[in-house]
């Protein structure tokens, strides 16, 4: 995801633009924006339609908020997230089409942007034409939930993803009926969804078909998160343990994390970044649920988003990147600590033997 270095300048870890919110919804852009910053972005621009732009601006001094739709293209952004709280009114559809016309790279579509895609695909004049071409050209990433994936699939193929639905329902039931606890439940679930597992093919076949049809990466949220690409056999299924509370806004948090990681990791494959974002979201929500229990709401999760790069492996990697005197000293100190720990372990074992 890109380690912090003292030679970096402001904005080099990303300046995402979030086109989110509407006169009806103000919470989604706030949750997505806060998550974006917590995931490491240097800036967070928000374009919010209507009077709610003032509400969003007051939520954090770290936001740069605009409600001027006419001049949004003047913003010096690195990448775009569109959709959280956007609604599907005509003004939002026009804004979506205007965004697509700018030929963005690795465009992230979430929530209402996915519903707008469904709405446009249902119109005969664009069903197999310019919209899909634009989605492909933008190397788009879509993050549908269970219902949005079902709607997208039905719009594309006039049928429903029945194998995927059945597999996901059975996985959910296996967790619900597991009396040994959530931890052991997810441990038992992982062999079922890995390559060659009982539900692997059922989980990926229909998502891969839709990804190839649209020419986009899909991150489908559910009991497990399924991540597929249109032009790769590489498939990721994230079975990291999350938590059972399904409060509104958790999808906005994932979208905010993902747009930040995309901004700071231009050379990383989209599937890898999607997997990282899904795992981070699940870990943060699990930590929040552990503290708040059933009282947890989406805003509680934000403070548990951790992108800590101060672990020992990162320190060593940074030292190797700069093999000067300081790098040599850090590596030497790490080796000395490792030798001391090994010696202490041996001494302790010998003492026990005596």
Provide keyphrases for this structure.
14 helices; alpha/beta; 354 residues; globular; 9 strands
Can you tell me about this structure?
- Belongs to the NnrD/CARKD family.
- Helices cover 53% and strands 8% of the residues.
- The chain is α/β, with parallel strands linked by helices and 354 residues long.
- The chain has two domains: 293 residues, 3-Layer(aba) Sandwich (UDP-N-acetylmuramoyl-L-alanine:D-glutamate ligase), CATH 3.40.1190.20; 35 residues.
- Strands 3-2-1-4-5-6-7-8-9 form a nine-stranded mixed β-sheet, with helices on both faces.
- The relative contact order is 0.12.
> How are the strands ordered across the major sheet?
3-2-1-4-5-6-7-8-9
Count structural domains: 2
The helix/strand class is alpha/beta
CATH class placement of the largest domain = Alpha Beta
Order of helices and strands: EHEHEEHEHHEHHHHEEEHHHHH
* CATH architectural designation of the largest domain: 3-Layer(aba) Sandwich
- As a percent range, the share of strand residues is 5-15%
CATH topology descriptor of the largest domain: UDP-N-acetylmuramoyl-L-alanine:D-glutamate ligase
Q: What does the oligomeric state look like here?
A: single chain
The total strand number stands at 9
Helix content class? 40-55%
- The 3D shape can be described as globular
**What is the CA-based Rg, rounded?**
22 Å
């Amino acid at each position: 995801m890109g380690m912090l270095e003292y030679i970096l300048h402001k904005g080099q870890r990303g300046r995402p633009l979030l086109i989110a919110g509407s006169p009806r919804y103000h919470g989604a852009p706030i949750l997505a924006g806060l998550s974006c910053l917590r995931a490491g972005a240097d800036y967070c621009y928000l374009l919010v339609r209507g009077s709610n732009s003032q509400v969003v601006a007051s939520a954090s001094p770290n936001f740069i908020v605009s409600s001027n739709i006419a001049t949004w293209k003047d913003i010096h952004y690195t990448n775009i997230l569109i959709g959280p709280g956007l609604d599907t009114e005509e003004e939002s559809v026009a804004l979506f089409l205007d965004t697509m016309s700018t030929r963005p790279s690795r465009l992230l579509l979430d929530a209402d942007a996915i519903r707008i895609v469904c709405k446009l695909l249902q119109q005969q004049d664009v069903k197999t034409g310019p919209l899909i071409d634009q989605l492909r050209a933008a190397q788009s990433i879509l993050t549908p939930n269970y219902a949005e994936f079902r709607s997208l699939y039905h719009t594309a193929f006039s049928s429903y993803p029945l194998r995927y639905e059945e597999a996901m329902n059975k996985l959910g039931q296996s967790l619900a009926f597991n009396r040994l606890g959530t931890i052991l439940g997810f441990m038992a679930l992982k062999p079922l969804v890995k390559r060659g597992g009982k539900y692997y093919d059922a989980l990926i076949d229909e998502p891969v078909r839709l990804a190839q049809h649209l020419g986009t990466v899909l991150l489908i949220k559910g009991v497990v998160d399924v991540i597929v690409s249109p032009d790769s056999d590489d498939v990721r299924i994230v079975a990291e343990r999350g938590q059972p509370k399904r409060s509104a806004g958790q999808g906005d948090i994932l979208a905010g994390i993902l747009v930040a990681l995309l901004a700071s990791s231009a050379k990383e494959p989209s599937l890898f970044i999607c997997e990282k974002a899904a795992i981070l979201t699940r870990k943060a929500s699990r930590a929040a649920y552990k503290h708040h229990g059933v009282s947890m709401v989406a805003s509680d999760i934000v403070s548990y988003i951790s992108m800590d790069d101060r672990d020992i492996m990162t320190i060593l990697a940074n030292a190797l990147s700069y093999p000067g005197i300081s790098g040599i000293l850090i590596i030497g100190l790490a080796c000395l600590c490792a030798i001391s720990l090994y010696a202490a372990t041996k001494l302790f074992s010998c003492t026990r033997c005596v």
